[in-house]
Amino acid sequence: MHLTDFDALSFDCYGTLIDWEAGISAVLGPWANAHGVAASSEELLERYAQIEAREEAEHPTALYPDILDAAMRNLGASFGVDVGSADAERLATSVGDWPAFPDSPAALRALSRQYKLVILSNVDRASFAMSNERLGVEFDAIITAQDVGSYKPTLNNFEVLVQRVRALGVEDGRLLHVAQSLFHDHVPAQTLGLRTVWIDRRGARHGWGATPPPPAAPTPDWTFPSMAAFAAACPSEKNA
Question: What predicted TM-score, i.e. pTM, was given to this entire model?
Fold first, then answer.
C-alpha cells in the first residue's frame, strides 16, 4: 500500500488543519485566571474535551456555537464557577479566530494538485467558512456536523463521507482519511474500513489535550508530525 493508491483525501479540520487548542486556550486561559481556577492549560483542555464530546453526543443536531456555549458553562460548573453569558459567548463565537497551523495552507495547495480534497468536520457551515478563509484552498466537498445531523465519532458522519466521495467519482478504496484525533476520526474511520493518516500534532507532549482518549487504540496506516511532512511524502510516492 502506497500513498499513490488514493485519489481523494478527507480531512478533519480542527486539530489537524486549524490549531483549535490554541484557539480554545486563548479563551479558557484568561477565563480561568479571572476566576481563580487553579488549573494548567493542559488540565483545562483535557477537562473541556470530555465535556464537549458529551455535549455533542447528547445534542447531535445542535449547532456548534451552541455546543461551545454549553460546554463553556459546564466546564465552569465542573470547577464550581458560574459562567455568565459573556464568557460563554466568547467561546461560542471564537472559531473564526482560531489560527491555522502555519503549514496547513501550503500543504493543502500541494495536495490539491494530486488529490480531491474533502472536509469532514464537527462544526457548522458558518464556522467552517471562517476557517476556510485561513486555509486558502477550495475543497471538492465540505461535510459538517450541521449537514449530517450528528457529530463524530458517530459512524453516520463517515457513511455520509463515503457516499459523498463516491458522488465525486472516486472508487471505493481510493479514499484516505487524514486526521489528528484518534477518538473522533481514526476509530470510526477504521471501523468502516477506511485507511487513515495520523497527523500527530501533539508529538511528545503529555496527555490528550482537547481530544478525548480513544476507546480503543487504533493503528493508523501512516503517521506524520505535521501536514508539511505528509505533503512532502506524497509527491515522492506519486513520482516513484
Answer: 0.95
